Amino acid sequence: MTDSDPPFESMTAIGPDEPMSDELCTLILSLQRDGRRLDPRAVERAEAWASSHPACREALGDFAALGDLLSSEPARQTSPGFTDRVLNRRRLLARGGDVLPLLRRLAIAAALLLGLTVAMDMTFPTGAAADDELARQEHQIDTLHPDPFAAPDLDGALQVLLPDVAPLGGDSEGLEEPGGDQ
């Protein structure tokens, strides 16, 4: 509960025209049973409501039975400062505190690294070009594209790669057909 949260006492200070409900009646009378200081007029209205509404009386009976059961259990001791730690954590989370501090730090580091990389690349630009030795190498696929902007030359490439095979649409002079001399 933060300093800005209203105390229970002010929550039960209802006006004379405000409608009573089972929920509000149950809240007021269960807070009174827990020993909270409440507006006496609110308690009187809640008791009058409970006397004429069986569902509210039943809920209050359940709360009373639960309270009796819990009070019969031995008291448990918490470690020193437990309440302060819980409340401080709640305040931290309510302010949007460090829910995942490691992930937040990693995200900041990644953003800084990306920014540094972009800045270095803009400061010292390098071209993506092959060195001279790699540029001079010839590859078989280059026979299909003697000119990078021309259509592939399949006939020329096949003649270079397979000199013993006839051109695709051309004549077959000087070449024997398989099984031709029978």
Biggest sheet architecture: none
Q: In percent, how much strand structure appears in the residues?
A: under 5%
Radius of gyration: 44 Å
Terminal Cα span: 105 Å
Total helical elements = 8
Helix content: 40-55%
Beta strand count? 0
Q: How do the SSEs run, as a string of H and E?
A: HHHHHHHH
Contiguous low-pLDDT stretches (5 residues minimum) are: 1-5
Query: Structural class given helices, strands, pairing?
Result: mainly alpha
Shape: elongated
What is the mean pLDDT?
77
Report a brief summary of the structure.
With 182 residues, the protein is mainly α. It contains eight helices and no strands.
Structure description:
This protein has 182 residues and is an all-alpha fold. Among the domains are: 8-72, no CATH class; 82-122. It contains eight helices and no strands. Helix 2 (22-33) packs across helix 3 (40-52), helix 2 packs parallel to helix 4 and helix 3 (40-52) crosses helix 4 (54-72). The longest helix is centred in the middle third of the chain and has 23 residues, at 101-123. Mean pLDDT is 77; it is low at 1-5.
